[in-house]
Each structure stands twice: as C-alpha cells, then as structure tokens.
C-alpha cells in the first residue's frame, strides 16, 4: 500500500525508506481502518493482529549540571534567564510556560494553576492529559523570578484568545495577561507591527534556536560531555 493511497495530500510518503516513528504512525492509521472494516464485516479476517510497533532508539538524557545551569543563567539576558528559572524550578513544559498568564498565578500563596498550553501552531489547548491540569507550589527561585517578571508584564493589557477544548469544535474566549510576552517582529506573518506583543509558541519561548550548551560554549564556559 503506497503513501498515495493512504493520504494523497502527503505524496512524500511514497518515498522509499521511513523513520520508525513515521512507520508507527502510518501503521496505527491503517490498523484503525482495518479494525473498522472488520467490525463492519467488510473483511472477515483481522490482518492488524500480531503487528507490533517498531522500536524507537532513545537518546540518553544529557541534562545540564548545576554549575552549567548557573553559568547559563548568568550568560543569558535577564528576560530569558527568568523563563529558564521558572521552567527548571516548576517542571512546566515549554508550551505551558508560553501560555502562562497572571490569572493562573497566586503570588501570595505561591502557586501556579496549569490549565493551558500553546502549540507550535499558536493554538491554545488544554494540557495533553487530565493529570496535566494541576496546581504547582512554587519553590523560592521560581517565586522570586515571577515576582521580578511581574514588574515587567504584570500591568500589561489583557489579550483576547480562543481556547480550544478537547471536544472537537468546542472553544471559548479568554481574556488574559501573559507572563512571558516578548516583542514579536514583522517576520512573523501574523504580526504587522514590530511593537505587537504576542505570546510565545513552543520552543520559541525559550529561545532555543541554539542549545543551552551552545550558549555556554559561545561564552567560553566549559561543559561536560554528553553521557
């Protein structure tokens, strides 16, 4: 079965050779199609049974050591360093930090309520799982960083966004003041003025066009070898 048959809008799938992750995704789609055909009695056999997913190679984690993290914070502009501090000391995902609003934060109680994420396509959605909707008790470094950030964006005007629920077609308008909302430049199609301020999307939020270790190396700071 060729890629053209599976999805004519994606002719690139007809090329020879596939990554295991691509094969697994296409097999999952095909498997569901065949299951439906079997349940509907269009076919009487179950060709999807016994088909296992291809194993994916996993890269070993290579986190920054403490001294590297400290050097990174010192090397970054303060506006970027605050984002990293909040990320490290809350465990929040990049998309959750992108969508973080002051309405989600209680600086008096020292808590963040996570209920929103921003995709790389700039769509506001819930966290991937119900467990992702959670309240985080802030450690002092994160609380201090947010208090510092509040002086920068805490009084910003609210922005209207459309929040997409998990149910297809269900959306709602939300009025929010984003915590991290740097100036977006006119290279973005959605922006007409360099003064327009937009919430960040995906890894853009953390300015990771270059790696954290790349930043350290550019400042002449030695790093440990990946394990």
Instruction: State mean pLDDT (0 to 100 scale).
Output: 80
Characterize the biggest β-sheet.
Answer: 3 strands, antiparallel
Structural class: alpha+beta
Oligomer class:
single chain
What is the ordering of alpha helices and beta strands?
Answer: HHHHHEEEEEHEEH
Q: Uncertain runs with pLDDT below 50, 5 residues or more?
A: 182-196, 201-210
What helical percentage do the residues reach?
A: 25-40%
Morphology: extended
Sheet with most strands: strand arrangement? 1-2-5
Distance between the termini: 40 Å
Number of strands: 7
Amount of beta strand? 5-15%
**In DSSP terms, counting alpha (H) and pi (I) runs of 4 or more, how many helices?**
7
Spatial extent as radius of gyration: 22 Å
Describe the structure.
There is one protein chain. With 227 residues, this protein is α+β, with helices and mostly antiparallel strands. Helix content is 32%, strand content 11%. Among the domains are: 30 residues; 111 residues, no CATH class. The chain contains 7 helices and 7 strands, in the order αααααβββββαββα. The strands form 3 sheets. Strands 1-2-5 form a 3-stranded antiparallel β-sheet, with no helix packed on it. Strands 3-4 form a two-stranded antiparallel sheet. Helix 3 packs across helix 7. The two termini are 40 Å apart. About 11% of the residues have low confidence.
């Amino acid at each position: 079965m060729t890629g053209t048959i599976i999805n004519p809008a994606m002719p690139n799938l007809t090329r020879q050779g596939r990554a295991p992750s691509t094969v697994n995704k296409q097999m999952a789609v095909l498997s569901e199609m065949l299951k439906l055909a079997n349940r509907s009695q269009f076919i009487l056999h179950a060709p999807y049974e016994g088909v296992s997913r291809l194993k994916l190679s996993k890269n070993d984690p290579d986190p920054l050591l403490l001294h590297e993290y400290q050097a990174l914070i010192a090397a970054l502009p303060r506006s970027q360093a605050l984002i990293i501090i909040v990320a490290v000391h809350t465990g929040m995902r990049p998309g959750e930090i992108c969508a973080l609003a002051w309405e989600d934060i209680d600086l008096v109680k020292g808590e963040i309520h996570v209920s929103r994420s921003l995709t790389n396509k700039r769509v506001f959605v819930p966290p991937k799982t119900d467990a992702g909707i959670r309240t985080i008790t802030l450690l002092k470094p994160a609380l201090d960083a947010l208090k510092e950030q509040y002086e920068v964006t805490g009084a910003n005007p609210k922005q209207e966004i459309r929040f997409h629920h998990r149910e297809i077609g269900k959306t709602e308008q939300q009025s929010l003041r984003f915590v991290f909302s740097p100036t977006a430049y006119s290279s973005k199609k959605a922006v007409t003025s360099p003064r327009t301020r937009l919430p960040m999307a995906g890894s853009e939020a953390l300015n990771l066009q270059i790696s954290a270790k790349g930043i350290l190396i550019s400042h002449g700071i030695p790093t440990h070898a990946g394990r």
